[in-house]
């Protein structure tokens, strides 16, 4: 008995030391990735004929250190945060929804199409109904991928990407046809009535009440994913799908449900962007948000409480890069390169962790 | 001409950390003989195969091919020495034709000469007396057809030594006959064959010599003609020949009968079970399981035990027949696994790590899994963490689980301690029907005794327990009745005190 206890404790302590040793190569790899990425960026900036130091300070200043910049970053962070919350739910369950862009587009289009019928309602009611309509639309688009996976075993990564193209083209047709503005000048709808707009929260910025929606969503999703049976079931399916089945969970229902949930969050992000920022649906109003939100969700390690932080970070990067593109000779796609470096770093760390 | 053994293991051992998987095994396999390697699951057969085929290196001892000492660093080295393996799980591309699969890994780089390839396949197939269409899509073939390709692929490498890992386990009797004819012809070409199996019938059909493994050791090796099936069963189970198999009267039989209710908890009628690959595992079985009894399902593994348990747990649908569960109306398969669990079914799965627990989650979370609808743990969809942690702490104490606390990831625990948590989880709420698949396999003696004690305790409290076990000692220690699955048939059920180990052993051997 004593011998076994001793044995157990030595094993446990061996486990601890190896954890300590394991951490260091992981940290080293992360640092190496960041340094490598930074060097590559500096090289690219030099290639563009600018000083990396100037570009970097400009980027940080404009993105994070001025009130204007911070405001713009927060504005950009609102939709990213909403989408990333939904993606976190889906990724936790081991379901890789790459279709937030399509779900966002469909949800927004459904809501905007309903705008005419709710414009007569008292302030607030109409907005609430539009938010719900967008969530339902996004959920339905997500559920299509869910149905294809559960019924036919189609890989959700493939189907959600395909559904993105379908959605983008349907929206493109809608804003040039049935719901185009009366002037028929641009591929966009008419401006929505003022009563349906989300009010601006801070004078002099473009931050709308969408911020409140996003922060509420953070709390709700955090609770749902970490404190409820539903969130626990999703996590179990993501970690050991077979154990989930043996314990009686229905994988089909969870899969379809979580694709609908993340679709609903994307739809919500889209309508918040329309009601809070643009005031109308126009083609390309949320360019690549669904993909950027993947970075946000991964950076936050799928933790709902960290998602707003990561969203603000990427929002700031975006605003800073825009300033860099405006004031220097460095082109805007730089921000995409930074994003890619971030994703690579994350994947590298995850792979190392799995090996260890 | 070649003399002496083609392949010899000399005092070979293999250890993983402190665990000795293979302990000092010496084997000689002669040219042109068919050699059977038999033993229970976990006896070390597959480790031996892996060492012969270069997948792993022995920790001690030497391997000789034709008298020459070798040290394989990969399966490629073994192939170069003429050692080919046909694995139990095939590595075939279903969307390719037979010829294309054949070319994978055997054809040289460059353009595929299809007519030459087809000719080669036909020649090889004819040489072992099988028929195959090189242009058939592999996905359209049955198991037997796919196995033929793997065997032909192995033969194309012109081996001197062919290892077949459980080749007949998944085949119908007719296909198995054809396989044995092919093996006979392979032997006549001067190729030695090692047959890894746990089907004794195969051994007596085609093998010249047999080696029995048990718990990492070689128990015996000799000419097949020196053994009776019962000898081999006894050697596999106990390590001794014909000894230690007395029938023991079942002391608890009287009390057990008294505790039994009138209507059975589980009613199985004319059940036909298929394996995942479509082959028939059990042709027809019927039995009742009453409250307050332990019914053991014995048999060599792979005879339908897995499929039986999964059908009753609602995880798979039986091919034919009916299952009734007294706690629910109608046919069992019309209810979801969730509904079955809520009605009082509990399940200790045979593959704990794969199906029973989530390694990275804490003990508390693993306890919660499976009780997600228990009001003490989840109220209105919200998890009551305090209550889960409190219950886990209690379980850790009651079951003597060695852990740093309820929040420790379960993957850090030893197998026995993980199993204790699984048992605690499944025994919570006093299930009325418990499916226990190999609940004490791989556990040390003390933990096994604990597991068996728990099963008896819950049996006496009125649970109906279906115990799947390959361990006759365990069955004789705790079961009230026993059924044996072998060769698509069911023997029994028979009360333990009305049968003997010899009889059960003979059933297992397919007599």
Automatic annotation (TrEMBL), chain A:
<feature type="compositionally biased region" description="Polar residues">
    <location>
        <begin position="7"/>
        <end position="21"/>
    </location>
</feature>
<keyword id="KW-1133">Transmembrane helix</keyword>
<dbReference type="InterPro" id="IPR001851">
    <property type="entry name" value="ABC_transp_permease"/>
</dbReference>
<dbReference type="GO" id="GO:0005886">
    <property type="term" value="C:plasma membrane"/>
</dbReference>
<feature type="transmembrane region" description="Helical">
    <location>
        <begin position="254"/>
        <end position="272"/>
    </location>
</feature>
<feature type="region of interest" description="Disordered">
    <location>
        <begin position="1"/>
        <end position="21"/>
    </location>
</feature>
<feature type="transmembrane region" description="Helical">
    <location>
        <begin position="305"/>
        <end position="324"/>
    </location>
</feature>
<feature type="transmembrane region" description="Helical">
    <location>
        <begin position="207"/>
        <end position="225"/>
    </location>
</feature>
<feature type="transmembrane region" description="Helical">
    <location>
        <begin position="69"/>
        <end position="91"/>
    </location>
</feature>
<protein>
    <submittedName>
        <fullName>Sugar ABC transporter permease</fullName>
    </submittedName>
</protein>
<keyword id="KW-1003">Cell membrane</keyword>
<dbReference type="GO" id="GO:0022857">
    <property type="term" value="F:transmembrane transporter activity"/>
</dbReference>
<feature type="transmembrane region" description="Helical">
    <location>
        <begin position="127"/>
        <end position="148"/>
    </location>
</feature>
<feature type="transmembrane region" description="Helical">
    <location>
        <begin position="284"/>
        <end position="300"/>
    </location>
</feature>
<keyword id="KW-0812">Transmembrane</keyword>
<feature type="transmembrane region" description="Helical">
    <location>
        <begin position="103"/>
        <end position="121"/>
    </location>
</feature>
<keyword id="KW-0472">Membrane</keyword>
<feature type="transmembrane region" description="Helical">
    <location>
        <begin position="330"/>
        <end position="352"/>
    </location>
</feature>
<dbReference type="Pfam" id="PF02653">
    <property type="entry name" value="BPD_transp_2"/>
</dbReference>
<feature type="transmembrane region" description="Helical">
    <location>
        <begin position="157"/>
        <end position="175"/>
    </location>
</feature>
<feature type="transmembrane region" description="Helical">
    <location>
        <begin position="29"/>
        <end position="49"/>
    </location>
</feature>
Automatic annotation (TrEMBL), chain B:
<dbReference type="Pfam" id="PF00005">
    <property type="entry name" value="ABC_tran"/>
</dbReference>
<feature type="domain" description="ABC transporter">
    <location>
        <begin position="7"/>
        <end position="240"/>
    </location>
</feature>
<feature type="domain" description="ABC transporter">
    <location>
        <begin position="266"/>
        <end position="511"/>
    </location>
</feature>
<keyword id="KW-0547">Nucleotide-binding</keyword>
<dbReference type="InterPro" id="IPR003593">
    <property type="entry name" value="AAA+_ATPase"/>
</dbReference>
<keyword id="KW-0067">ATP-binding</keyword>
<dbReference type="GO" id="GO:0016887">
    <property type="term" value="F:ATP hydrolysis activity"/>
</dbReference>
<protein>
    <submittedName>
        <fullName>Heme ABC transporter ATP-binding protein</fullName>
    </submittedName>
</protein>
<dbReference type="InterPro" id="IPR050107">
    <property type="entry name" value="ABC_carbohydrate_import_ATPase"/>
</dbReference>
<dbReference type="GO" id="GO:0005524">
    <property type="term" value="F:ATP binding"/>
</dbReference>
<dbReference type="InterPro" id="IPR027417">
    <property type="entry name" value="P-loop_NTPase"/>
</dbReference>
<dbReference type="InterPro" id="IPR003439">
    <property type="entry name" value="ABC_transporter-like_ATP-bd"/>
</dbReference>
<comment type="similarity">
    <text>Belongs to the ABC transporter superfamily.</text>
</comment>
<dbReference type="InterPro" id="IPR017871">
    <property type="entry name" value="ABC_transporter-like_CS"/>
</dbReference>
């Amino acid at each position: 008995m004593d011998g076994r206890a001793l044995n157990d404790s030595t094993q446990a302590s061996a486990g601890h030391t190896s954890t300590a040793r394991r951490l260091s190569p992981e940290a080293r790899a992360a640092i190496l990735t960041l340094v490598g990425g930074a060097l590559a960026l500096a090289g690219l900036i030099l290639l563009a004929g600018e000083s990396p130091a100037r570009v970097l300070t400009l980027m940080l200043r404009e993105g994070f250190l001025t009130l204007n910049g911070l405001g713009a970053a927060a504005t950009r962070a609102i939709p990213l945060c909403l989408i990333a919350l939904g993606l976190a739910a889906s990724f936790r369950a081991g379901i890789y929804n790459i279709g937030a862009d399509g779900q966002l587009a469909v949800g927004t289009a459904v809501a905007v199409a309903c705008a005419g019928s709710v414009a007569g309602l008292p302030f607030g009611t109409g907005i609430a109904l539009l938010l719900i309509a967008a969530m339902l639309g996004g959920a339905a688009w997500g559920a299509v991928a869910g149905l294809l996976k559960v019924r036919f075993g189609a890989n959700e990564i493939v189907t959600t990407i395909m559904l993105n193209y379908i959605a983008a083209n349907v929206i493109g047709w809608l804003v040039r046809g049935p719901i185009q503005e009366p002037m028929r000048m641009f591929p966009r709808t008419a401006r929505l009535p003022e009563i349906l707009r989300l009010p601006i929260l801070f004078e002099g910025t473009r931050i709308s009440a969408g911020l409140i929606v996003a922060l509420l969503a953070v709390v709700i999703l955090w609770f749902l994913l970490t404190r409820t049976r539903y969130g626990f079931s999703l996590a179990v399916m993501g970690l050991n799908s077979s154990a989930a089945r043996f314990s009686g969970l229905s994988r089909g229902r969870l899969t379809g449900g979580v694709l609908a949930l993340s679709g609903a969050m994307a739809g919500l992000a889209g309508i918040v962007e329309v009601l809070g920022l643009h005031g109308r649906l126009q083609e390309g109003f949320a360019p690549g948000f669904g993909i950027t939100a993947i970075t946000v969700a991964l950076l936050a390690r799928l933790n709902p409480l960290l998602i707003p932080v990561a969203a603000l970070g990427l929002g700031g990067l975006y605003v800073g890069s825009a300033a860099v593109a405006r004031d220097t000779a460095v082109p805007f796609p730089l921000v995409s390169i930074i994003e890619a470096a971030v994703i690579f770093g994350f994947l590298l760390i995850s792979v190392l962790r799995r090996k260890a | 001409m070649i003399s002496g053994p083609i392949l010899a293991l000399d005092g070979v051992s293999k250890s993983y950390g402190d665990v000795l998987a293979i302990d000092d095994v010496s084997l000689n396999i002669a040219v042109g003989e068919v050699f059977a390697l038999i033993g229970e699951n976990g006896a070390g057969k597959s480790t031996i195969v892996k060492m012969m085929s270069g997948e792993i290196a022995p920790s001690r001892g030497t391997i000789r091919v034709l008298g020459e000492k070798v040290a394989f660093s990969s399966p490629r080295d073994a192939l170069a020495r003429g050692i080919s393996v046909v694995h139990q799980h095939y590595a075939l591309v279903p969307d390719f034709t037979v010829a294309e699969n054949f070319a994978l890994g055997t054809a040289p780089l460059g353009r595929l000469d299809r007519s030459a390839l087809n000719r080669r396949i036909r020649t090889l197939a004819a040489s072992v007396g099988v028929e195959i269409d090189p242009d058939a899509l592999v996905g359209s073939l049955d198991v037997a057809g796919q196995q033929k390709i793997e065997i032909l692929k192995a033969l194309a490498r012109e081996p001197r030594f062919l290892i077949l890992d459980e080749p007949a386990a998944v085949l119908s009797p007719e296909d198995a006959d054809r396989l044995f004819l092919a093996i006979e012809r392979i032997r006549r070409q001067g190729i030695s064959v090692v047959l890894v199996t746990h089907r004794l019938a195969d051994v007596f059909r085609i093998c010249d010599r047999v080696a029995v493994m048990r718990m990492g050791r070689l128990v015996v090796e000799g000419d097949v003609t020196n053994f009776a099936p019962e000898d081999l069963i006894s050697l596999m189970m106990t390590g001794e020949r014909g000894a230690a198999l007395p029938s023991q009267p079942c002391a608890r039989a009287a009390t057990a009968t008294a505790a039994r209710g009138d209507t059975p908890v589980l009613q199985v009628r004319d059940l036909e079970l298929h394996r995942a690959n479509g082959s028939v595992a059990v042709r027809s079985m019927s039995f009742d399981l009453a409250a307050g009894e332990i019914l053991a399902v014995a048999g060599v593994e792979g005879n339908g035990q897995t499929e039986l348990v999964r059908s009753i747990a609602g995880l798979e649908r039986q091919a034919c027949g009916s299952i009734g569960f007294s706690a629910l109306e109608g046919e069992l398969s019309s209810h979801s696994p969730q509904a079955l669990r809520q009605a009082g079914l509990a399940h200790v799965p045979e593959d704990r790590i794969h199906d029973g627990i989530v390694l990275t989650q804490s003990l508390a979370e693993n306890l919660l899994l499976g009780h997600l609808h228990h009001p003490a743990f989840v109220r209105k969809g919200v998890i009551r963490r305090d209550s889960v942690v409190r219950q886990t702490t209690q379980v850790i104490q009651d079951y003597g689980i060695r852990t740093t606390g309820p929040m420790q990831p379960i993957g850090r625990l030893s197998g026995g301690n993980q199993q204790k948590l699984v048992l605690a989880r499944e025994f919570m709420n006093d299930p009325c029907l418990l499916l226990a698949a190999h609940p004490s396999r791989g556990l040390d003696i003390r933990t096994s005794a604990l597991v068996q004690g728990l099963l008896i305790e819950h049996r006496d409290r009125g649970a109906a327990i279906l115990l799947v076990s390959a361990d006759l000692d365990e069955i004789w220690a705790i079961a009230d009745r026993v059924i044996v699955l072998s060769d698509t048939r069911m023997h029994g059920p028979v009360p333990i005190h009305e049968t003997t180990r010899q009889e059960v052993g003979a059933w297992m051997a397919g007599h």
